[in-house]
Design brief:
alpha+beta, Aminopeptidase, eight-stranded mixed sheet, 5 helices, about 30% helix, about 35% strand
């Protein structure tokens, strides 16, 4: 589906966001955002191989109207959910698109039996780290030169005991703070 050009609303205006399971037809728009956000973007073949692993992966795309504005991915390993990627078109920052995508990933991880969550984030990416901290992720270590293209270190973050009632309350409070409407399509099995 070709995205028609739309422009973001003012920062605090509520938007309607649809989160759908990522499909092959979305990849051209995903790769466009990927190349804007990352110094060395993932390739089409990498995304295709991830999408083929449905039993252990879940990928979402975020739409505002007909425009794809972000995407995110999850990998399950036993009872650990690992956030593989999350990106939002820079023109749509500060509209809680990343928050909505992370909520969907976390809920999918819980549906698949996750008891903990993990991810890596660039040490320089303070806005992303702040988002992850709101979701209960805590730094547990550093991976030196993790991002080989820039020789930047990655901060390893974990959220533990995510299957309990305290974490469910945290997710509820985060969700309550997201303005507008979010609809989420369940992931295929």
């Amino acid at each position: 589906m070709a995205a028609e050009p739309t422009f973001p609303l003012l920062e605090d205006q509520p938007v309607e966001v649809r989160l759908l399971a990522m499909r092959r037809r979305h990849l051209r728009s995903v790769l466009r955002i990927e190349s804007r956000v990352y110094p060395v973007p993932w390739s089409m073949s990498l995304f295709l191989s991830e999408l083929a692993l449905r039993s252990t992966r879940a990928y979402y795309v975020a739409f505002v109207g007909r425009q794809l504005v972000g995407y995110a991915g999850l990998m399950m390993t036993l009872d650990d959910g690992h956030v593989t990627t999350i990106a939002v078109d820079p023109a749509w920052h500060r509209h809680k698109i990343g928050t909505r995508l992370l909520l969907a990933l976390v809920r999918e991880a819980l549906r698949r039996g996750a008891t903990s969550l993990t991810l890596e984030v660039r040490l320089s990416n303070k806005p992303a780290q702040a988002l992850y901290r709101r979701f209960g992720f805590r730094p547990v270590g550093v991976r030196k030169n993790y991002y080989s293209e820039t020789k930047e270190d990655a901060l390893v973050m974990w959220a533990e005991e995510v299957a309990g009632p305290a974490y469910a309350r945290l997710l509820g409070s985060i969700e309550a703070g997201v303005p507008g409407v979010t609809t989420v399509e369940e992931q295929p099995r």
